[in-house]
Structures are given as C-alpha cells and as structure tokens.
Amino acid sequence: MSEPIHNPKLEEHPDSNMEKDPEDWVSGDDPMTGAQAFYLTTLCEQAKIEPPREDLSKAEASKMIDELKGRLNL
What are residue 31's phi and psi, to 5 degrees? Predict the structure, then answer.
C-alpha cells in the first residue's frame, strides 16, 4: 500500500480559519461567495424558509449556513 499524501491544509492549526469566529475573519466583510449563496439557497429550500438577502457578507453567510445546518441536523 502507498503512504497517504501529506497535506498540511488538512492538519489542525491553532490559527486556522476553521476555528475562528466568522466575525474575526479578515475577509468577513466581503460579499458572500457564489458558493455560499448557492448553498444557502439550497438550505433555505430544505428548511422551507425565504432565501437569504443578496447583500450578505461572507461572515453573515457562514453563520447562517451553520444555523441552518443545525436546524436541519446536517
């Protein structure tokens, strides 16, 4: 068998964005990404709620995604 490929991006780091509150993100005030908008729309459809407003920031979108995933037990 071959050895797994080392990928430092998959390791946990204390300053990882995966652990930071979205409010602390450097780019948190930037507009949400297309991927976030698409995922939020899908989650809203599953939760049977209105889709998000289009002017959400990356941080706001991330928080809403987390909230909806919790509601939907995803």
Answer: -60, 150
State the burial class of residue 61 (Cβ atoms within 10 Å of its Cβ: 0-12, 13-18, 19+): buried
Tell me which residue of 55, 52, 67 sits closest to 30, measured CA to CA: 55
Chain centroid to CA 20: 12
Q: Look at residue 49 in the predicted model and tell me its pLDDT.
A: 95
Token duo for residue 39: 């995922």
58-71 and 34-47 helices, crossing angle to 10°:
30
* Confidence (pLDDT) at 8: 58
Pinpoint the alpha helices (H) of 1-74. Answer: 34-47, 58-71
Does the pTM surpass 0.85? The reply is no
